[in-house]
Design goal:
Strand content of chain A: 5-15%
Shape of chain A: globular
Number of helices of chain A: 17
Low-confidence stretches of chain B: none
Strand content of chain B: 5-15%
Radius of gyration of chain B: 23 Å
Largest sheet of chain A: 6 strands, parallel
Mean pLDDT of chain A: 96
Distance between the termini of chain B: 27 Å
Oligomer: heterodimer
Shape of chain B: globular
Helix content of chain A: 40-55%
Helix content of chain B: 40-55%
Number of strands of chain B: 15
Structural class of chain B: alpha/beta
Largest interface: A-B, 75 and 69 residues
Largest sheet of chain B: 6 strands, mixed
């Protein structure tokens, strides 16, 4: 069913080209229209890497293929891509047009199973779902079509899965900070996205002792599939740990699941917290004495950030949640559980949550909300206007995020909490009391 | 054939202008084949992702400050909404104006591809009107809505009694044309057929088709010498303002590709002269264009006086700089008009153009004449430089750059210049369509080129530390290796 897409906050499944793109030396091959990658890639998202949307082979489907089918076109495109562009893994992605005209992608891709480099396929037609689902489908394709069972499991090796690369502006920094946290416990993190990762780490996935999913819902199907296929258990932590409270909780949960020495873990936590509170102590005056910001805040973002930032601002910073908005088109089956996470806040505070992606309705609600003063609104570029209207403090942290550059900074961990405070209070300091 | 401005559909550039996206040869061959009518499209058996007409069409219409653009498409096609709205909001803020346009989608899903979605579309159009009260509504079609045969025109006809503002279907399915510039025409066609009204009076306004009006103040001053005012479009325009396009003295455009449909359409339907000279880039371009305007509005003497005064100030400065630019070699990758017009500017500065990659090529414009900048270059270019038509085909550009090793690469579309610097070649991105406008622009441009080639730190640092994605085999091939034989064979 159509629905009004007023201020889009998710893209279509084909945006999973960004997931492939984030795997160093993996190349998406698009069997799609000429403008798909152009629209989905966008600028300022770190897209001019080793490959870029302009480098992605694409069949650029025209009227001819709409009428006669595009299988031959796909075949020659893959054949020549293998000659022209060097990659460790080629991932063929279908778009709307090739799926509607009924091209047999599987069959075409199967004809490349004997070439030297792996060529796999994920069905990512735009009308089939959001980019969050598309991300899962690409990982699923890697698991089903590329990975082989491991001869042995490696003790302490942990695959970490978190947010959707490139779509989440902080995906890189966050993922690497999750690695750092896990490594502090003496475990060996394994991730597949970003610098110096890629195919060698993908190969290690089946050898892991367990999978760690840090996400409210995205990726849950993938870790379940890994359990089914390779017998690897998984730990699902819905909250991205920002600041001391959640980071300590995160370390305890991972440590417990891995059966590590509790006392040692507590020592690590204590040291981290002491250092974190050294900074909080030094800057507590800023947080308390410069703000005319009210205690109320609203996050308008995907499930990951709405949950993580709510937890941080309530449990670490002592702010008070107004209604929170989740805009990532979260599938129905996850919504009840996610709602529950917002009820697990300090002092039995509960935050109301709406799963809604219609920006017009969200902003009307925000406009009618009693914030007891100038609120803090954290969201995307779309929130800039309502923040101005409500005289709010405003920070953009999720897609679409057009007026801010993020290279590798992170909101994860103890340091990540401090970074988020820097960004929020930089806004606060820029305004008169 | 003239433009048919009575129906909602319109012809693609391929059908109207004999446009192509595949060619490999040189300037003189391209021009002579254009004149003989022998130029044929060439297909590739390998291609990289380009752009579509829908992105171009809807982005153009969203420049209008008080409209709603509704993209009847799956969510990904509307992913461009935020970038479009943010940049147009910034443009309006620069002039202290409110920007109230909205860019929405219908988020088509799998069910819609099976059962159709005109019912849903209708509701969304009504909701959009009730929410924002836009002054006009444009509904764009997409690959999906096109393939499943959604009749957007009928939906709009049904809504006519309910919604009291102009509405148009913008037929811009991504598969419709290989030339994304067809999207400019889609937008112009919608404006011409639904917004522009017959003239009530004549004004002293010249319609100025451009992108981001960055030289607005400068042009207002220039035109003041001729007692005329520019009206820039579509950036920061309103529906009301556009309804008066027919009342103008003339239409001009910063870019031939951008202006042909609206300019010729206004001339055909309302007799507003379209200035069809080369565009005002560089010195010859500027002077030819300004004289063209002077002739049409009978202000030849004022134009000559202005030119004489400006020349006295700028030409010596430009001549001085030319000494340092002499002998540099350039490769360009740009749209069909800018590619050749910037080539002309480079030649004026004494720079050798060795290769022009044009994203597409129009054999003629809508007045059925070969684009004037090609005609000019065929006569005036000191060398018969190589030309390829290649819509942002990165692998071809890098092959060409590797072979020709120019001093500078000039691009005008995101995602191309970065690849030149990765090969260690200095590059400049002409984001601003007025970068080479007139005497001032030409001087700025000359300085920018010098600055770019004098400090190559950025590209040398980067190129030394990265690997390129293309195989050695590819660099040894001819750039046209993946062209197929003529389509018609």
């Amino acid at each position: 069913m159509t629905k009004i897409l007023d201020q889009p906050r998710y893209k279509c499944a084909l945006a999973a080209m960004q997931t492939v793109h984030a795997i160093t030396n993996a190349l998406p091959i698009l069997h799609a229209g000429p403008g798909c990658a152009d629209k989905l890639g966008g600028g300022g998202q770190g897209g001019s890497g080793h490959f870029s949307p302009r480098v992605f082979p694409c069949t650029n489907l025209s009227e001819k293929e709409v009428i006669f089918g595009g299988e031959e076109r796909l075949k020659e495109t893959i054949e020549n891509a293998l000659k022209i562009i060097k990659a460790d893994l080629y991932v063929v992605l279908s778009g709307c047009t090739s799926e509607i005209v009924g091209d047999d992608h599987q069959e075409v891709v199967r004809s490349f199973q004997n070439v030297d480099q792996p060529v796999i396929f994920a069905s990512t037609a735009g009308f089939k779902g959001s980019n969050f689902l598309g991300h899962e489908w690409v990982i699923q394709a890697i698991i089903e079509q590329y990975l082989k069972p491991a001869e042995k499991k490696i003790k302490g090796l942990v695959n970490i899965w978190a947010s959707v690369p490139q779509h989440d502006p902080f995906w890189y920094g966050n993922l690497f900070e999750l690695e750092n946290l896990v490594a502090q416990l003496g475990l060996t993190p394994n991730t597949i996205f970003g610098y110096d990762r890629g195919i060698k780490n993908i190969d290690k996935i089946p050898e892991a002792e367990f999978n760690l999913l840090v996400s409210p819902w995205v990726g849950l199907n993938n870790v379940k599939l890994l359990e089914e296929k390779f017998g690897t258990p998984y730990l699902h932590l819905p909250t991205l740990p920002i600041g001391a409270f959640e980071s300590s909780k995160f370390l305890r949960a991972v440590s417990d699941f891995a059966g590590l020495d509790q006392q040692k873990t507590e020592e690590i936590i204590t040291e981290n917290e002491k250092k974190y509170y050294y900074f909080i102590e030094r800057f507590a005056d800023v947080f308390l004495e410069t703000r005319i910001m009210s205690k109320r805040f609203a996050v308008v973002s995907d499930a990951q950030y709405s949950l993580a930032i709510t937890k941080f601002l309530v449990n670490d910073v002592g702010l008070f949640p107004s209604k929170q908005y989740i805009t990532d088109d979260t599938p129905d089956q996850y919504q009840e559980q996610i709602r529950g996470y917002f009820k697990e806040l300090n002092y039995e505070i509960e935050a109301e949550v709406a799963f809604i992606s219609d920006g017009y309705l969200i902003q009307n609600e925000i406009q009618d909300t009693y914030f007891t003063g100038h609120p803090l609104i954290i969201g995307s570029s779309w929130e800039k206007k309502i923040a101005k209207k409500t005289d709010a403090y405003y920070l953009s942290i999720s897609w679409p995020m057009n007026e801010r550059l993020v290279i590798n900074s992170s909101y994860v961990g103890y340091g990540g909490g401090l970074k988020l405070l820097e960004d929020i209070y930089t806004e606060v300091l820029a305004r008169a009391i | 054939m003239s433009l048919d401005l009575t129906i909602s559909t319109f012809g693609t550039r391929e059908s109207r202008l004999g446009s192509i996206t595949g060619y490999n040869g040189d300037l003189q061959d391209l021009v002579s084949q254009s004149k003989c009518g022998t130029l044929k499209e060439k297909n590739r058996c390998f291609s990289q992702s380009t752009s579509c007409d829908a992105g171009c069409a809807l982005g153009q219409l969203a420049y209008i400050r008080d409209v709603a653009v509704i993209n009847h498409a799956p969510s990904g096609c509307t992913a461009m909404a935020a970038t479009t709205i943010v940049s147009h909001t910034q443009l309006a803020a620069k002039r202290g104006l409110d920007y109230d346009a909205v860019f929405l989608g219908t988020d088509m899903d799998e069910n819609d591809t099976i059962f159709g979605a005109v019912g849903g579309l209708k509701e969304i159009i009504i909701d959009t009107y009730n929410r924002y009260k836009p002054k006009a509504i444009f509904v764009g079609t997409s690959c999906v809505s096109g393939i499943i045969g959604e009749d957007v025109d009928s939906v709009l006809a049904e809504l006519k009694s309910e919604i009291p503002v102009p509405m148009a279907a913008v037929h811009c399915e991504g598969f419709k044309s290989r030339v994304w510039a067809t999207g400019f025409d889609a937008a112009d066609h919608a404006v011409l057929t639904t917004l522009v009204k017959p003239p009530q009076k004549k004004t002293n306004v010249i319609n100025f088709k451009n992108f981001n009006e960055s030289a607005r103040t400068e042009i207002i001053k220039i035109f003041a010498n001729l007692d005329v005012e520019p009206f820039f479009l579509y950036s920061n325009s309103t529906v009301e303002e556009l309804s008066h396009l027919s009342e103008a003295l003339a239409t001009v455009s910063i870019c031939g590709t951008l202006g042909t449909y609206l300019g010729n359409g206004l001339e055909q339907k309302y007799g507003v002269p379209y200035i069809k000279t080369i565009n005002p880039l560089g010195i010859v371009g500027f002077e030819t264009w300004l004289r063209g305007i002077g002739q049409v509005i009978s202000k030849e003497a004022e134009v000559e006086a202005y030119i004489e005064k400006e020349r006295a100030f700028y030409i010596p400065k430009i001549e001085e700089l030319k000494k340092q630019l002499q002998g540099l070699r350039a490769v360009l990758g740009m749209g069909a008009s800018y590619a050749f017009q910037i080539s002309r500017v480079l030649q004026e500065l004494g720079i050798e153009v060795v290769w022009v990659a044009s994203w597409h090529y129009d054999t003629t414009y809508d007045n059925h004449e070969i684009p004037p900048h090609l005609e000019y270059l065929a006569k005036e270019s000191p060398n018969n430089f190589k030309v390829s038509v290649s819509d942002q085909q990165n692998f071809e550009i890098l092959n060409i750059l590797n072979k020709y090793q120019p001093d500078i690469y000039l691009g005008r579309h995101p995602g191309t210049t970065v690849w030149a610097i990765k090969q260690g070649i200095a590059a400049f991105f002409l984001a601003d369509e007025y970068k080479t406008f007139g005497y001032r622009g030409t001087l700025d441009f000359a300085y920018t080129i010098l600055d770019t080639i004098k400090n190559r730190s950025f590209e040398k640092n980067l190129a030394a530390r990265i690997t390129l994605p293309y195989s050695d085999w590819w660099y040894e091939q001819d750039n046209a290796t993946f062209f197929k034989e003529d389509l018609n064979k």
